[in-house]
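Review this fold:
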Amino acid sequence: MRCPYDPKPLLGLPMGMLHCPLCGEMIVAGMEHPEYGLLDEEREIMGRVMDRALENKFEQLAERALTEARKIKCDLQDYAEGLLVMINTIQEEYTATCEELSSEG
């Protein structure tokens, strides 16, 4: 983008840096107005880089979440198997107790 404002006539005034009254960019009194056309391209490139970085971060977080979910699933399966063992043990003890009581009676 090329701004038409010309800060060169301000040479010698005690202003230093100021905001361009047309485009708002920082300019130096008495110097040529910088052309910011490359910035648009750089912003676009940076946007693509940031998009890719965010995609990578999302993929890492998704992979970590999947790993944690698998770990939780394994833990739950182990817990369920332990509960089944306990239930079977209780059923066997109950059956044995019932058989003892019926043979005594």
